[in-house]
Fold this protein.
Amino acid sequence: MTGNEFESLVVSEIYKQANNIRANVNFYHLRTHDGKEVDLLIETQDGYYAFEIKMAEHVSATDARHLRNLQEFLDKPLLHSFLLSNDNQTHQFSDSITAVSAAYFLG
């Protein structure tokens, strides 16, 4: 499986789960003019959840770099950001950025 396939698998599973519970949310992909990219933004009534998806078995704060300062691009509050990967360790990179196993996150 490639990184793009892994990303598509995770995004489609999140979409499926949101659809199954009839969540009133919108899904977006964000790419800025300067090349900052966020794999998935989920818009709720109260704000956004941001997701960066990496197939890596070990992640670091560098992998979450595009999640930092994301609020300046959004029209609603950024509620929390997640880095989903194959890393079995949970990491708290800041108060608003959590790295967690994609399999654990998806249940």
